[in-house]
Task: inverse folding
């Protein structure tokens, strides 16, 4: 049996090697260099050999691994299952511990500017992930243009704040409403679409918004971006070293020394609160009839219709609410950066958010946190290696898909149980 | 004499050049089980799809008598037939929500009622007492039906994990949760063994007699059809070839011909 397996795996990895050779041979192996104003082909066979060997060996070990897994099938505990069982049982305690850690995080000795920035970025992605989880995880609508709502939120916040001088707390809901309206706007044409078709149209929608922002120069200043977006204030107290005359600042009001970190810490708490609101809202709405209808629609649309569930309204609410949270995150992004341009809202952002949701395990709130820490953390760790970051990112995704094909946390909890009520 | 619940007149459905239903006229009564039988491809499921709004009939009329209120089923498109007219249906290939629990399946069927009770989610978000009360009632209704089919102890399991026979029964009681006036069942006995079949008969009789819900039944299993039908409509190539009681149907030469062919 074992011998047979090795033979099969070898054959398979040989085949993988041939494919890798066919792919990477021309792409990596043949490089054109300009020599004396003439293009010369310079072969790089050693690199190709390395890549091919890597692919073949990788395939071999995956084969062996999956075979072992097949053998163990039926046995209850593998590592992933143990982890997800652990998270299920201790879910509440872990969540409280995680929130507590997030609250004291800014006062940790190691939490310098660099770490705070990463933490804020991760929180933003977690919030976006939670928002998109409503659309993808619950309603099952694969939305590849989620960044459009993030952009709409950011731009509407920026425009209202710059032109009308309204404060963050007024502009935030406005930005959310705008993004929600755009969610409905996207929702209408795609009501009848499913799966791949839906994904393509949403992808195009994301690009349309970006191109619109790029070309509507009068409103958005196009590629120059919007500058001078007001920084958030602590309920009217600005974070400034030298405030305008007669304006009390945060540090004078509380009698503190001025420190630029105060603003960063405030931003951190702001996004933490926004993210937690998103999470609480999602958890709650999932247990309401509309949330159940989302999941039912994901499971079987025809059955939903036969039970009198209105698929149009149900889908539109999912799009609108998901988009609204994207808009909130966008406003936060705008106020944090004080500068936004269409460059911040490219497809890769959508792809990262979708990856976070899918790798986390569709519909799992904790999964979103874990995969954000894993993916964004990895990108940061590899920051020094620049162009290899995306390789690491892709590698991480491949690994998760091999070991946890349905996402890190794939287990779904019923929204209502008889045990609790019966 | 019971009243006419469903009145179908001259129903025709064409797909391009293909005439799937040809000038079909029949009616179903309130406390009757009306069976539609016929060989494969006779157009039985197409009749259901027209009735429940999944297809738009080419011609003809369909009226439902809902509390002495004549409703034109042609006016309603897909989900509205269930929502407004109270026509529920099941499917030939079971359509449960497999990744959701049995209880959740039952709750989704009570969606419209609960949606209003939750103030379109606003009252629900603030945990309003009136919503929680309605939710509790919905669970009670679910429990009532699950008790009848003996699935209460599996209420929190995924619907997709149930045995096949239980999935069939669950689909039927889930349809009953929308409190329909007419229940359309598309081959509910397909793939059931003899014991499950007789349980199904009992369930359908209970729905007919105790719930006063009219049942329209497509079935191939003759033991089910003959055992419980009050009225049988036989279709062949989209046309009605016979209509009568179960006993009459069994002895009709036309029906025998449609199923078995004729001697040359």
Result:
């Amino acid at each position: 049996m074992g011998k047979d397996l090795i033979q099969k795996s070898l054959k398979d990895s040989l085949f993988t090697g041939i494919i890798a050779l066919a792919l990477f041979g021309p792409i990596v192996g043949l490089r054109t260099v300009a020599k004396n104003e003439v293009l010369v082909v310079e072969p790089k066979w050693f690199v190709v050999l390395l890549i091919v060997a890597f692919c073949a060996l990788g395939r071999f070990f995956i084969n062996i691994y999956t075979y072992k897994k097949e053998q163990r099938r039926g046995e209850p505990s593998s590592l992933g299952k143990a982890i997800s069982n652990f998270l299920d049982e201790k879910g509440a305690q872990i969540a409280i511990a995680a929130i507590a850690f997030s609250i004291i995080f800014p006062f940790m000795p190691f939490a310098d500017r660099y770490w705070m920035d990463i933490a804020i970025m991760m929180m933003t992605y977690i919030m976006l992930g939670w928002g998109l989880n409503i659309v993808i995880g619950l309603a099952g609508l694969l939305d590849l243009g989620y960044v459009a709502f993030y952009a709409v939120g950011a731009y509407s916040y920026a425009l209202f704040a710059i032109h009308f001088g309204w404060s963050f707390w007024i502009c935030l809901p406005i930005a959310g409403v705008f993004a929600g309206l755009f969610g409905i706007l996207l929702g209408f044409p795609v009501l009848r679409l499913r799966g791949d078709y839906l994904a393509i149209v949403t992808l195009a929608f994301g690009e349309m918004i970006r191109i619109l922002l790029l070309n509507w120069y009068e409103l958005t200043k196009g590629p120059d971006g919007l500058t001078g977006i007001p920084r958030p204030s602590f309920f009217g107290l600005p974070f400034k070293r030298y405030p305008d005359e007669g304006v009390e600042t945060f540090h004078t009001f509380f009698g503190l020394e001025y420190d630029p970190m105060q603003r960063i810490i405030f931003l951190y708490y702001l996004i933490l609160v926004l993210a937690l609101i998103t999470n609480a809202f999602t958890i709650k709405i999932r247990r309401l009839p509309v949330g159940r209808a989302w999941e039912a629609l994901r499971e079987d649309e025809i059955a939903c219709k036969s039970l009198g569930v209105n698929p149009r309204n149900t889908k539109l609410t999912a799009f609108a609410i998901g988009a609204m949270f994207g808009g909130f995150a966008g406003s936060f992004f705008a106020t944090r950066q004080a500068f936004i341009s269409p460059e911040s809202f490219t497809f890769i952002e959508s792809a990262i958010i979708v990856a976070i949701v899918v790798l986390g395990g569709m519909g799992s709130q904790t999964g979103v946190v874990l995969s954000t820490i894993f993916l964004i953390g990895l990108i940061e760790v590899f920051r020094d290696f620049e162009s290899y970051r995306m390789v690491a990112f892709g590698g991480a995704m491949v690994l998760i898909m091999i070991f946890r094909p349905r996402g890190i946390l794939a287990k779904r909890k019923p929204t209502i149980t008889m045990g609790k009520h019966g | 004499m019971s009243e006419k619940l469903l009145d179908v007149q001259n129903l025709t459905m064409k797909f391009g050049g293909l005439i799937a239903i040809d000038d079909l006229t029949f009616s179903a009564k309130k406390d009757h089980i009306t069976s539609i039988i016929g060989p494969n491809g006779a157009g039985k499921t197409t009749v259901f799809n027209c009735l429940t709004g999944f297809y738009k009939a080419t011609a003809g009329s369909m009226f439902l008598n809902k509390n002495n209120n004549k409703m034109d089923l042609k006016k309603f498109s897909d989900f509205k037939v269930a929502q407004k007219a109270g026509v529920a249906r099941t499917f030939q290939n079971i359509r449960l929500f497999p990744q959701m629990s049995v209880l959740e399946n039952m709750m989704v069927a009570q969606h419209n009622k609960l949606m209003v009770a939750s103030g379109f989610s606003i009252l629900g978000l603030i945990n309003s007492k009136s919503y929680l009360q309605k939710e509790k009632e919905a669970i009670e209704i679910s429990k009532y039906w699950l008790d009848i089919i003996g699935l209460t102890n599996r209420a929190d399991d995924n619907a997709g994990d149930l045995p096949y026979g239980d999935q069939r029964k669950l689909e039927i009681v889930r349809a009953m949760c929308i409190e329909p006036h007419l229940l359309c069942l598309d081959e509910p006995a397909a793939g059931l063994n003899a014991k499950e079949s007789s349980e199904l008969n009992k369930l359908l009789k209970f729905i007919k007699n105790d719930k006063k819900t009219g049942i329209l039944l497509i079935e191939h299993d003759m033991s089910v059809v003959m055992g419980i039908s009050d009225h049988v409509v036989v279709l062949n190539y989209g046309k009605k070839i016979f209509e009568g009681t179960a006993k009459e149907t069994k002895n009709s030469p036309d029906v025998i011909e449609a199923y078995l062919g004729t001697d040359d």
User: Anything to note?
Assistant: The CA atoms of residues 29 and 46 of chain A lie 8 Å apart. Residues 2-72 of chain A form one domain.
